[in-house]
Amino acid sequence: MKGTLYIVSTPIGNLEDITLRALRVLKEVHVIAAEDTRHSLKLLNHYAISKPLISYWGEKEKVKAEEMLSILNSGQTVALISDAGTPGISDPGNVLIRRAIEEGIRVVPVPGPTAVIAALSMSGFSTDAFIFRGFLPVKASQRSRELKGLNLDPRTIVLYEAPHRILETLADIKETFDDRRVVVIKEITKFYEEVFRGTASAILERLESAKISGEYVIVIEGRPVEKLNTAEDALTEIKTLMKRGLGRKEAVRRIAEEYGLSKKELYDRSLSGE
User: Fold this and answer.
1) In whole angstroms, what is the distance from residue 42 CA to residue 29 CA?
2) Top CATH class, 121-222
3) pLDDT, mean of residues 9-32
């Protein structure tokens, strides 16, 4: 009989943010696969958990995934954890999860903390629908293009950013989203957690004179529907969806339904605009 792969969420900062089930699973499994064993040992030692550890950090992920599959195929259980939050969500782990599914191994989530939901819940913006983009491209031109593609979307947008790129990204957001409301959370759930609310330009001004350190979560308010410039903005959004691989009919259907416009008229205008 094959073993089970548990995807275990761990604290994103405060060590108390871990479920009782997660602690039980970590104590019961045969092996723990950690993104960085040195980092994870802080958590495991805090809760007096001692288990064999396998690191799957960075370039090791593909090779180590095969090693862990061998363990799982032998009938042993493995807990997959990342440095913080949920494995596979802007963190390593997808390689092992995908390979385990291919091998017919049971994959069980043990849910818990994730920065995207924590940030969204305290943003004050709409949570009915949102886009999680994770980390934007490092290259400035690609990052700017991504943001422009999100500009017309009415859904709340959640991004992650590293300290050495936070000012550049906020400058791009300022240029693309104008006076849209933004929330930036530094070191979420950690001792030095700090929340910045306002426009991108106002937050950028504050951060330029502050100490830049730790990880950042950025939440951008979705574009209000009433600010759409009638059919012209709708056509722009259709083009954006099509560039992402959506067919014309489906793109037109989504935008027409979302903004209460005529599907036929939008479809005809999308053809004539090319």
Assistant:
1) 18
2) alpha beta
3) 97
The residue extents of the domains of the chain are 4-113, 121-222, 228-272
The reply to whether 121-222 shares the fold of 4-113 is no
pLDDT mean across residues, the chain: 91
Any idea which fold 4-113 has?
A: Cobalt-precorrin-4 Transmethylase; domain 1 (3.40.1010)
For 3, 32, 79, 109, 271, the CA distances from 6, given in Å and listed in that order, are: 10, 9, 5, 6, 49
The reported pLDDT for the residue numbered 83 is 93
pTM: 0.80
Mean pLDDT (whole number) for 42-68: 91
